[in-house]
Amino acid sequence: MHKDFLYSEIANKIAFQIRNGVLKAGDRLPSVRILCQEHGISMNTAKRVFLELEAQSLINSKPQSGYFVNHLSSPKLPLPETSRPLSMANDHEPDELISKVYGNMGKDDLTLFSIGIPSGDLLPLAKLKKEIVQSTRRLREGGTEYESLQGNLRLRRMVAARSLAWGGNLSEDDLITTSGGMNALSFSLMAIGKPGDTIAIESPCYPGILQLAINLGFKVLELPTHPTTGIEIDALKQAIPKINLCLLVPNFNTPLGSCMPDQHKQAVVTLLAKHGIPLIEDDVYGDLYFGSQRPKCCKSFDKEGNVLWCSSISKTLAPGYRVGWIAPGKYKDQLLKLKLVHSISSTSIVQEAVANFLNTGRYENHLRHLRGTLRDNYQHYIQAITEYFPAGTKMSRPQGGLALWVEFNKRINTTALYDLAMKQRISIAPGRMFTLQNQFENCMRLCIGLPWSQELNFKLKQLGNLAKMM
Amino acid sequence: MHKDFLYSEIANKIAFQIRNGVLKAGDRLPSVRILCQEHGISMNTAKRVFLELEAQSLINSKPQSGYFVNHLSSPKLPLPETSRPLSMANDHEPDELISKVYGNMGKDDLTLFSIGIPSGDLLPLAKLKKEIVQSTRRLREGGTEYESLQGNLRLRRMVAARSLAWGGNLSEDDLITTSGGMNALSFSLMAIGKPGDTIAIESPCYPGILQLAINLGFKVLELPTHPTTGIEIDALKQAIPKINLCLLVPNFNTPLGSCMPDQHKQAVVTLLAKHGIPLIEDDVYGDLYFGSQRPKCCKSFDKEGNVLWCSSISKTLAPGYRVGWIAPGKYKDQLLKLKLVHSISSTSIVQEAVANFLNTGRYENHLRHLRGTLRDNYQHYIQAITEYFPAGTKMSRPQGGLALWVEFNKRINTTALYDLAMKQRISIAPGRMFTLQNQFENCMRLCIGLPWSQELNFKLKQLGNLAKMM
Asked: What average pLDDT does this structure show over B21-38?
């Protein structure tokens, strides 16, 4: 393995142990010398491991003493258990609850812990406006022309170029643009599934995916999912005879923030390919890693074109632009046909604007900044939750993304907590939104994509107090 | 009836007789005095009738003699017969041909008689660019925020206000925005139909509708359609027991350019409502009338919310913006749900830009100009086709819209003509594209949305010569 990756591989392993409580707050880490011996690496590589863990705020160094696990990074709050949804597919869609919570979007007088996108304060709005203006100048006929069916060529080139960072090795011709990430998932599901099919997903799962699957007439099989490593491979294996397709969010999914280890990704891809079951991979959060390196995707291990890799800029740059894409593997013809008959093409101007934003390197700068902010926010949230939330609270350890998953003790019903919190102008996303079954009623998702402030800290305290009173 | 409408009602009747050859080129029209007596109208109203017919270039006045049917407006070429598709639904989709012809889009070195949108030369590009820039300034967070689910409020208000002109009387709350007209049709079909359903449509029909219906698993029933009055009511009546839904383009549909008389619209709405069969009405060409007045829609006669009225700005203003809308009647909840789960929302910036363009009155100005150009183009095409095309050629009498339908004698295969014409850098839309059956093989559609020029005249001559040689 190339040494550039070696240090981060080792750092990731240690980070994993810290996040999962194998290494606890205050624990001393092995010395640089020991680390060299254990892993057969150079002093320099070992030092980079520690620098990386420090950068992630997971450890701190004490002069003359060595490195210690940070108190914040290894929260005292335990991790939620692996989810145990029922093995049968069912469909008690939490539609009303979802509508109620989504209905709060855009309300300025609310603290929106419930949203799943970064706040506008974290986005490069002025630069984006300039890109829009430039696009109307650069595009033939000011962007009034139909975009080509496959989508903006420069955008596809940039997405392909960026795929090298996660082992995608895509070419521009492998990609089709869409009107946002949900549109990519919708076309993918319509291309490979039909009403009555059974689809395997993570549990808890993004409500939009649940609703889309139900709307298309699929039976939904929610599978046990670990809060840090994602879907349980054994559970997926056992489900194989029952399922026709699979949709996963392997990197920093919402609400758990889990990230499937590479071995898991590879195992899932191999398993599904062997049984001819297509895999739709939603990678909208993949660029929002807290560590040093962009995680790989299932698509990185896809040799047979069996993975439909979907992503967008909605969670990182501009939700309202509706710019997304798919690398549909061997399903490209079906995808192009679907895009044609359902939409003709995507909006020209916004695709061109995003293409240019990526092309000038502004996107990488922005992402670096955004990741730093989210990582800091995460630490602030940990501190506040540890301090203010009731005894028995458990909490996820997101390794990236925009979401924190909080599990209260069984007595606290978060759908009721939602109503209480709204009276104090606080909106949360109750756990029941993330499943079609009767589970997660004592859980909630908190968005960490809001700019941190004393006000936010106070709102978390209020929320904690409400929970304590229940 | 209000006298403002009376004159246009009478003018429309006379126009209809001229276009259908009841009144022939050179025929003298009744005098103003006779017209007053016949219809019980005032002199002023009668004069307005003749002014209106003159404005449409259908008649001309000769001093001291009266009014005569214009030679151009009543072309010598006969009208094609009412189409007679087979009564059974079938699905020989002309996919390859459609891909081939659509693949020519955007190629600068071709004369694109094959496209179905107005040329960029006919669009207000500079003004639209300004609207885009203004939108990024006016929208919260520069348009990076998700648009509300139902869509831009100002846009919906403007579309609702404009609906008064055709008797729609819609309110902003009746409307949902979409990403273009095809997206409106797609959501409508998905909301009310399911795989295996049979859908009744006009024949010939826009290829996008054929492909969409097949893609959604519908059986397609093509119904006999008259080139000026649209779908045959009796044929629809007989089909009722077989069909689950109906999709019509009542105003200036492509390729025929027919416009259903109000009585037909009303009859269809009543018939379908009686049998609980929903009607999707595609009205994307409705604003492109050659006469004095915006035609009504089926939606104008919809008392039960059974009509899903779909339209867009793609045929009039900016195809690449992807801005459309639906008034879904009683199917509003299903439509909102579909829009949410398949797309979350539409692109914010382009909706705001179009809303403002409509709001400032620029749209009405632009439409007035565009309609005049299309009407003039139509006259030029008539002249060229009459002069250059082989004996036995028949031609539609569009009363608006962007398309001319040409029927050659049976020996001339337009799919073969397409290949010949392409060698001379001319692209046409062969008739076989507009049906799932083996019909219209001696027909073609010509777009009249190109700026008229001697070059275009020459290309029509070349095309005529090629046809003569076959």
From this structure: 84
| Length reported for chain A | 470
Residue among A194, A343, A433, A447 with most chain B CBs within 10 A, to mutate: A343
Does a cis peptide bond (omega within 30 degrees of 0) precede residue A204? yes
Structure tokens at A1: 């393995």
Sequence-separated (6 or more) residues with CB below 8 Å from residue B160: B168, B170, B171, B172, B174, B175
Q: What is the pLDDT of residue B1?
A: 44
Q: What is the pLDDT of residue B175?
A: 98
Select from B126, B137, B342 the Cβ nearest to the Cβ of A182.
Answer: B342
Under the banding of pLDDT at 50, 70 and 90, the label for residue B65 is: confident
> Cα(B195)–Cα(A216) distance, rounded to whole angstroms?
11
CB B334, CB B327: distance < 8 Å: no
DSSP-assigned beta bridge partners for residue A225: A231
- The CATH code for residues A125-363 is 3.40.640.10
Q: What angle do CA B315, B316, B322 make, to 5 degrees?
A: 60
Percent of chain A with pLDDT over 70: 97
Q: Do A145 and B106 touch (CB under 8 A)?
A: yes
Return mean pLDDT, chain B. Answer: 92
pLDDT per residue over B83-109, tens digit each?
A: 999 876 566 778 899 989 988 888 889
- In this structure, what token pair is assigned to residue A194? 């039909």
Collapsing DSSP states into helix, strand and coil, what is residue B302?
coil
Look at B144 and A350 and tell me if their CB atoms are within 8 Å. Answer: no
- C-alpha dist (Å) from residue A389 to A101, A252, A375, A465, B6: 22, 24, 20, 7, 74
Look up residue A400 and give its DSSP letter: B
Find the mean pLDDT for residues A316-341.
97
Tell the residue number behind the tokens 């595009």, with chain if given: A139
pLDDT in tens, B125-150: 999 999 999 999 999 899 999 999 99
pLDDT in tens, A109-120: 999 999 889 999
Closest chain A residue to the Cα of B118, Cα to Cα: A145
Distance CA A441, CA A426 (A): 18
Report the gap between the CA of B285 and the closest CA in chain A (Å). Answer: 17
For position B194, what pLDDT does the model report? 93
For chain A, how many helices (H) and strands (E)? 15, 17
A345 contacts in chain B (CB < 8 Å): 320, 322
DSSP A319: G
Which one of A105, A126, A147 has the shortest CB-CB distance to B320? A147
Residue of B104, B210, B348, B349 to mutate, testing the A interface (most A Cβ within 10 Å of its Cβ) = B349
pLDDT band with cut points at 50, 70 and 90 for residue A237: very high
Break chain A into its structural domains and give their ranges: 3-69, 95-121+367-469, 125-363
- Listed in order, strand segments (DSSP E) in B117-179 are 176-178
ipTM above 0.90, yes or no: no
What is A95-121+367-469's CATH topology?
Aspartate Aminotransferase, domain 1 (3.90.1150)
User: Of A129, A136, A215, which has the smallest distance from its Cβ to B337's Cβ?
Assistant: A215
Residues in chain B with CB shorter than 8 Å from the CB of A320 are: 139, 141, 143-147, 345, 347-349
CA A349 to chain centre: 27
Closest Cα in chain B to A122: B141
Q: Residue B453 CA to chain centroid, in angstroms? A: 24
Give dist(CA A80, CA A225) in Å, integer: 11
H-type alpha helices, A111-194: 125-138, 153-162, 181-192
User: For the ranges A1-5, A6-10, A127-131, B27-31, which has the lowest average pLDDT?
Assistant: A1-5
What is the second-level CATH architecture of the domain A3-69? Orthogonal Bundle (1.10)
pLDDT in tens, B375-412: 889 989 998 999 999 999 999 999 899 999 999 999 99
